[in-house]
Inverse folding.
């Protein structure tokens, strides 16, 4: 503790410079902790499980022109042809895909509603009896639709019957939202005034588009309806294959569909992994950008510390010589500058904590950024302490090398 | 005198090349980061139709049934139902008005073409779309009012589609096979790329305009599909256009404030009248934003871009504080030299001016390097996957702003150190030296 007093009295004589270092560390700390938190949030979004068996899923979308094309009947023929391709384990049509940005949504409530305004919104997935198997979604409770339950959804009847399904499968997350403490199987929920019976609960599957918050359970709300879908309602074909043969399967499937429909065109042909990559590319780019900025910011802060520390060492060369002449060891001089930097960094971090929380509160008010977990403050603190110690090491070593004779020469 | 200062400053900078280089680099990085992000922000928050945007308005009414409240959004929906769109179009008094939605379908290339069928997006709208937004034509002209009323099978196509299908020739009068129907081409657009694509913010906000334009009435008669959002508020009827489902955007041109106020009254009156008739359950709830208000209301500039801009400004602030610290160290290190100059008769003001010039020179170097870094930053932004990435180019106004910002930053950074150094007492310094 005896070493602190001379340091403090020396800093008092360099108020402006000391204040500048503290300010710079505080700003860097506040920005770095918030930026890191946003980076981690983005990375968590990128890593969200989709709930489907991703590696072995390939997708094709046929764009059809004109009435009477791409109907359910034609889709059945397409699917039969696709199943015949070697390597295809199962195939289905599906109205929309997780992480595809495009969804059919409905609102279900626990009580009959005259309007659609109450209740909990969920995307609706449908396509045919092979849907769950092809996606790799598991039945957890209850049972799936009997084959006789499926009806064809067409552009002509879609308006009437899409909202009129009487049976549904729901995901675990949705079941938990509607009935937190009870088994959902057999329960009734309402689409407007239409009662819909939940006949089974399936494993979670992610929405076509998800909220900014990776931890939002609503990302996994979904309902499955017993409809057959077809390209005339922009349905996709999804094929399950062994990951190793999937690229070949995709190519063969595209060729086959194009040959079967010379006047139509394939709007998309890709693996699900690719679609997922595309969905999160902005998050990935933002994470890289923030990470780069954090590094640059730390580098600039280090330069500032090195610059001011070198200046002090130079200015105090004589005092250092005197101390050395009076018996201070090299390690004492080194410690002196290291302690000084630690004190400045600590003051900066203390100030920075307040600023970090202030910035976070402002970000929460204006942007979809959740509350900064308290854990980020010690992480940021350790980072800046370490940075400060590394930055000051060079100048401090130079100071430690000042020979005691300097004291005499200069005088 | 100032030439003398300049020489002194240069000399001083040359005496400590490493420190000078570090200062220039730190400042340049801060400038580069801020100007990159501010340029992106500037490009994205621009006015897509300068001079006209103040007269273009987006009307909104609220046909939703009374809900349980709670989580319901109090703002009226952004899309109109077919019935309301038709009523507003025919009852409202606007200089020009157009209803519209986005479609997408397959184009069959003309027979004999080597092309395969391909998918294009279309805008299904009225003829006022072209005059209201001053859309430039390369060949032909918009379809006529009679084509609108009679749901004629006519189309306007983009320059890009004209090139693809007809090699860029004047294709007016030729036929376009879109979505399994045949349309007579009446016009070909010249290059038109409003940024953002303000008229439909549900679809790609910074994307290109559609390739095919077809009269709204024709599209409804043929039931051309919707490639956009459809939001239903209640039990659907037998088809889309009789259901309480919003899918239509509408723009009106109102040439004076008085006309805008009158139109807003009309929207409220219409809502009240529908309320009285039992079609609307809610009391009148209307909005009439002009174009720029509409862009702000819909948060057209992505939140990520705003956050990046703030982050970059914070970064610049750190760089400026850093420069203040380094300049202070640099100036005070020369206390002896400054003391001598003071003793030889240089006034405090002269010292202050000299040091500020030195700071300014660092700023100028930082500006040039910062400009290069801005260009590099924008190049990196253009390689990003986001929809607006390709728009990130340096504009002359932002170039000047970069230089000004760098100079300003360095002078602000130089103020405190120069003032502090100019207070150095001459006598003490000479004694110690």
């Amino acid at each position: 503790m005896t070493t602190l007093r001379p340091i403090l009295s020396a800093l008092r004589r360099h108020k402006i410079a000391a204040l500048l270092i503290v300010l710079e560390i505080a700003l860097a700390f506040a920005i770095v902790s918030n930026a890191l938190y946003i980076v981690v949030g983005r990375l968590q979004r990128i890593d969200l499980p989709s709930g489907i068996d991703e590696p072995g899923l390939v997708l094709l979308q046929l764009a059809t022109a004109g009435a009477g094309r791409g109907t359910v009947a034609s889709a059945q023929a397409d699917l039969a042809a696709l199943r015949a391709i070697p390597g295809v384990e199962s195939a289905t049509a599906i109205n929309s895909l997780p992480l595809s940005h495009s969804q059919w949504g409905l609102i279900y409530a626990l009580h009959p509603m005259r309007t659609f305004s109450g209740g909990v919104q969920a995307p609706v997935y449908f396509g045919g009896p092979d849907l769950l198997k092809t996606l790799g979604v598991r039945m957890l409770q209850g049972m799936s639709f009997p084959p006789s339950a499926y009806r064809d959804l067409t552009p002509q009847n879609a308006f009437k019957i899409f909202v009129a399904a009487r049976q549904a499968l729901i995901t675990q997350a949705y079941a938990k939202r509607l009935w937190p403490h009870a088994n959902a199987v057999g329960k009734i929920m309402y689409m407007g005034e239409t009662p819909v019976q939940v006949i089974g609960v399936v494993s979670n599957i992610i929405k076509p588009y998800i909220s900014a918050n990776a931890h939002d359970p609503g990302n996994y709300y979904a309902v499955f309806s017993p409809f057959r879908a077809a390209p005339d309602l922009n349905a996709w074909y999804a094929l399950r294959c062994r990951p190793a043969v999937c690229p070949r399967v995709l190519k063969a499937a595209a060729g086959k569909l194009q040959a079967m429909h010379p006047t139509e065109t394939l709007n998309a042909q890709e693996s699900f992994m690719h679609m997922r990559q595309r969905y999160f590319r902005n998050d990935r780019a933002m994470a890289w950008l923030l990470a780069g900025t954090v590094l640059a910011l730390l580098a600039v802060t280090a330069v500032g510390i090195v610059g001011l520390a070198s200046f002090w060492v130079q200015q105090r060369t004589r005092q250092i010589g005197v101390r050395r002449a009076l018996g201070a060891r090299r390690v004492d001089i080194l410690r002196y500058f290291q302690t000084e930097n630690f004190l400045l960094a600590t003051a900066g971090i203390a100030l920075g904590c307040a600023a970090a929380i202030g910035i976070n509160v402002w970000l929460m008010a204006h942007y979809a950024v959740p509350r900064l977990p308290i854990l980020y403050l010690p992480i940021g603190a350790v980072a800046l302490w370490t940075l400060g110690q590394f930055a000051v090491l060079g100048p401090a070593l130079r100071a430690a090398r000042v020979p005691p004779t300097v004291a005499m020469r200069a005088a | 005198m100032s030439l003398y200062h300049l020489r002194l400053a240069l000399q001083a900078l040359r005496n400590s090349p490493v420190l000078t280089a570090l200062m220039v680099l730190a400042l340049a990085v801060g400038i580069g980061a801020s100007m990159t992000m501010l340029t992106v922000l500037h490009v994205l928050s621009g006015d897509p139709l300068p001079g006209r945007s103040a007269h273009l308005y987006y009307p909104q009414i609220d046909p939703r049934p009374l809900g349980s409240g709670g989580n319901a959004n109090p703002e009226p929906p952004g899309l109109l139902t077919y019935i309301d769109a038709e009523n507003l179009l025919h009852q409202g008094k606007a200089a020009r008005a157009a209803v519209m939605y986005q479609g997408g379908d397959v184009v069959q290339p003309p027979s004999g073409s080597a092309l395969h069928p391909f998918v294009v997006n279309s805008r299904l709208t009225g003829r006022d779309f072209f005059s209201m937004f001053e859309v430039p034509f390369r060949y032909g002209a918009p379809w006529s009012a009679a084509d609108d009323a009679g749901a004629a099978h006519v189309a306007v196509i983009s320059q890009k589609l004209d090139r693809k299908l007809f090699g860029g020739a004047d294709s007016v009068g030729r036929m376009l096979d879109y979505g399994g129907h045949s349309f007579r081409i009446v016009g070909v657009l010249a290059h038109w790329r409003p940024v953002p694509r303000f008229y439909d913010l549900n679809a790609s906000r910074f994307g290109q305009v559609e390739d095919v334009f077809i009269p709204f009435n024709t599209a409804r008669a043929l039931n051309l599909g919707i490639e956009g959002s459809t939001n239903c508020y209640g039990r659907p009827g037998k088809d889309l256009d009789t259901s309480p489902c919003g899918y239509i955007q509408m723009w009106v041109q109102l040439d004076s404030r008085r006309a805008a106020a009158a139109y807003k009254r009309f929207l409220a009156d219409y809502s009240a009248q529908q309320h009285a008739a039992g079609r609307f359950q809610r009391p009148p709830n209307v909005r009439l934003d002009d174009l720029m208000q509409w862009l702000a209301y819909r948060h057209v500039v992505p939140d990520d871009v705003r956050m990046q801009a703030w982050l970059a400004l914070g970064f610049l602030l750190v760089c400026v504080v850093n420069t203040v610290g380094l300049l202070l160290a640099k100036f005070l290190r020369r206390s002896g030299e400054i003391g001598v100059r003071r003793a030889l008769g240089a006034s405090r003001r002269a010292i202050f001016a000299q040091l500020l010039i030195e700071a300014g020179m660092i700023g100028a170097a930082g500006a040039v390097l910062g400009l290069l870094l801005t260009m590099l930053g924008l190049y990196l932004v253009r390689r990003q996957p986001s929809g607006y990435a390709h728009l990130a180019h340096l504009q002359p106004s932002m170039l000047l702003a970069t230089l000004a910002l760098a100079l300003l930053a360095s002078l602000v950074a130089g103020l405190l150190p120069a003032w502090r150094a100019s207070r150095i007492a001459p006598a003490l310094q000479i004694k110690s030296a």
